[in-house]
Amino acid sequence: MKRWTLFIPFIMFTLLGLLLWRGLYLDPKEIPSALVDKPFPEFSLPTLIGEELKTQSSLQGQVTLVNVWGTWCISCKVEHPFLVELAQQGVRIIGVNYKDDNDAAIKWLKDLGNPYEYSVDDVDGTLSMDLGVTGAPETFFVDVNGVIRHKHQGVITQGTWAPLEKIWLSLVEESKQVVSQ
Amino acid sequence: MMKYGLLLIAFLFSQCSLAIVGGHEYVFDDGTPLENETRAQLFEKLAVELRCPKCQNQNLADSNAMIAGDLRRELYQQVKSGSDGDSIIDFMVDRYGEFVLYRPQVNAMTYVLWFGPVGLLVVGLICLVFIVRKRKQSETVSQDLSIDQQKRINELLEKDKGDDHV
After folding, report:
1. How many angstroms separate the CA of residue B70 from the nearest CA in chain A?
2. CA-CA distances (angstroms) from residue B75 to A57, A169, B34, B45?
3. Which CATH number fits domain B2-105: 3.40.50.2000, 3.80.10.10, 1.10.10.410, 1.10.8.640?
4. Which chain B residues have a beta carbon less than 8 Å from that of A134?
5. What's A39's DSSP letter?
6. Is A26 domain-assigned?
7. In terms of CB atoms within 10 Å, which of A4, A37, A139, A141 comes out highest?
8. Structural domain boundaries in chain B
9. Would A3 be classed as within a structural domain?
10. A16–B contact, CB cutoff 8 A
């Protein structure tokens, strides 16, 4: 018998160990979105303030963050100040008010500031279901053509913005090229 | 339990079918009695096979998460109105990805998952056959050796006998 064959169990153990060790550091909550690189789903919903009817075509023409939020969602309160900051820097943010009480939502925006160009009132959660939303907050990066390019689950804060800013800037860069063509 | 029992008896004599999933009753009454029965069964099957996208290790039937409740309602409405299982699964996968399937689809990404165990079994069997054959061979070799040795022993004995006569 060749001597090296005695090492087969050891090699298999090492490979399996590496595989499982790697598994320890994967985040099982990070689910790839089924909607990346697909057009933003069709919708027709009234805005939270003013009850003006909006559709998916209102997203086109400008790079947009679509932020799913609700007053029942505690993490949304955490990220809210940073969204206000982003809006002041000129980032276009549109809100999807997910299964919320309208009065509470309007009061929230009055008290904490309104980073949204507008929020649509998704009271039944139909748009959120079409977006594959599993909870709030979630934020979709929509390009100039109204195509979803990235989905971020969880809060956007100073700490998590750095990699997202790169995506944002690349989309803005892309939109300039589209305009110049 | 009493409530469910009475409900069940009531439904046995009616035109509609009933599914009980996660402690809720779901009534199917839009089609013929036969259609209603198959729909109720489809609903029960899918509520168990579809995974809650939020809570990860529970199916739609078990989970209390808000999203699971919404998806159960959506599933119920689609099944009740007569959608077939495949189109409902497509609906869910389009929105939440293949993650929601506890029974993953067979495609390039899941070949290892589906056929890996069979592959391992085949490899194991091949190894087994190989090892058993090798063992048998080495056994016959050791017998051959003893035949050789037997010859030598005989020779030595012959020699010994000759010595005796001297």
Report:
1. 8
2. 28, 39, 19, 11
3. 1.10.8.640
4. 53-54, 67, 96
5. B
6. no
7. A139
8. 2-105
9. no
10. no
Residue A140 maps to a domain: yes
3 state SS of A62: coil
Best probe of the A interface among B50, B58, B67, B112, by most A CBs < 10 A, is B67
In whole angstroms, how far apart are CA B24 and each of A49, B3, B9, B69, B98? 36, 12, 17, 11, 26
List the CATH number of the domain containing A65.
3.40.30.10
Task: Write the residue in B65, B95, B99 that is nearest to A129 by C-beta.
Answer: B95
Nearest CB among A31, A130, A135 relative to B99 is that of A31
The domain containing residue A136 runs over which residues?
34-180
Q: Is A29 on the interface with B (CB under 8 A)?
A: yes
Instruction: Give the count of domains, chain A.
Output: 1
Residues paired with residue A98 on neighbouring β-strands, in sequence order: A122
> Does B56 sit within 8 Å of A132, measured CB to CB?
no
pLDDT mean values, one per 10 residues, chain A (181 residues): 84 95 84 86 93 91 94 93 94 94 94 95 91 90 94 92 94 83 61
In this prediction the ipTM stands at 0.79
Is the Cα torsion angle B80, B18, B30, B35 positive or negative in sign? positive
The answer, yes or no, to whether residue B165 has pLDDT greater than 60, is no
User: What phi and psi values does residue A92 have, to the nearest 5 degrees?
Assistant: -80, 120
Q: Is A77 at the interface with chain B, CB within 8 A?
A: no
B10: confidence class by pLDDT, cuts 50, 70, 90: low
Does A73 map to a domain?
Answer: yes
